[in-house]
Amino acid sequence: xxxxxxxxxxxxxxxxxxxxxxxxxxxxxxxxxxxxxxxxxxxxxxxxxxxxxxxxxxxxxxxxxxxxxxxxxxxxxxxxxxxxxxxxxxxxxxxxxxxxxxxxxxxxxxxxxxxxxxxxxxxxxxxxxxxxxxxxxxxxxxxxxxxxxxxxxxxxxxxxxxxxxxxxxxxxxxxxxxxx
Length: 180
Known about the structure:
Elements: H1 8-19, E1 25-28, H2 35-43, E2 46-51, H3 54-61, E3 68-72, E4 86-93, H4 107-120, E5 121-131, H5 136-150, E6 157-163, E7 173-179
Parallel strand pairs: 1-2, 1-4, 2-3, 4-5
Antiparallel strand pairs: 5-7, 6-7
Helix pairs in contact: 4-5
């Protein structure tokens, strides 16, 4: 087992834990099975989590974590629920592991969400995007995200791509955006 070159979720957690400037508010834009939300709830005072799948929302709400607010809504509407700066936004894009693989995140809503997240993130804040492109929509989403983040002003945002170079079959990527 590798210590650093393991999986993109572990790498994103390490970066968030060690490089976020504050730990007050975080957003899990893609709740899924709740692993990122659990991680964030241990670090941040308040976590907002979004998912369009009622089962994911219901399952997480059953945990009754007092510092987590869960919404059965698309991440593209996060600004309708959050009206203050946040310190971190995490995305785990693709489909729900163990769920219906026909229900995926899609490029258009992810770009809308990312634009809103960039407006909410504070100075020193981090956005982490784990991108799984091993399906048709995932590939479209990856291309759209790459195109969009390349256009971000470098005097305001640092953008770093982590990718596995010696893995086959569309390995996941991690993009980290840090606000200056």
